[in-house]
Design a protein that fits this description.
Layout lengths: L5 H28 L5 E5 L15 E6 L2 E9 L4 E3 L2 E5 L3 E8 L4 E5 L5 E4 L3 E8 L4 E6 L12 E7 L1
Parallel strand pairs: 3-6, 5-11
Antiparallel strand pairs: 1-9, 2-3, 3-4, 6-9, 7-8, 7-10, 10-11
Bound molecules: dinuclear copper ion.
């Protein structure tokens, strides 16, 4: 039998506890709380994406009652989102597909889990459900040039 020092034994136990706790935290976040990690959904050409479906007609698509896709374009010079306003009914589940036509932007929707980095050439995707009526502003939270502070819009959840 190898002799393990008492303190070393405690460090091993502590390490195992931390591993188990972290694994549990990741599992609970993903499967119970429903936190999603934004991942690159698709690749696009930032030079032509604004002329190519579906981003040539940005905005909301109803897939089924209460289920929507929202296509959003982020742009610098002039700094804005297309569209700058999205209206959905209460209880709507919306999957956002967001991309940039030029530089790196951000897309954060207040009061939701939507918080993404928007890179030219990639489509970022996240889904959320609006269970509260009201206005949910979205903002660019990655510095993208002198008009960065003008990049905002809002989601209006109608009761
Ligand atoms: Cu777009 Cu900051």
């Amino acid at each position: 039998m190898i002799h393990v020092h008492t303190y070393e034994k405690w460090w091993i136990v502590l390490s195992v506890i931390m591993l188990v706790a972290l694994t549990a935290a990741v599992g609970i976040s993903a499967f119970v709380v429903g936190i999603q990690v934004p991942s690159p959904e698709a690749r696009v050409d930032p030079k032509t994406v604004a002329q190519t479906p579906p981003f040539d007609n940005p905005g909301l698509r109803e897939l089924a009652p209460g289920k929507y896709d929202a296509y959003v374009l982020a742009q610098a010079s002039p700094w804005k989102y297309y569209p700058s306003e999205i209206r959905v009914p209460l209880g709507a589940t919306v999957t956002f597909y967001v991309t940039s036509v030029d530089v790196q932007h951000g897309f954060k929707v207040d009061g939701t889990n939507i918080n993404m980095q928007i890179l030219p050439g990639q489509v970022s995707k996240l889904t959320t459900t609006f269970n509260q009526a009201g206005e949910f502003p979205y903002v660019c939270h990655e510095y993208c040039g002198v008009g960065h502070q003008n990049m905002f819009g809002k989601i209006i959840v109608e009761p």
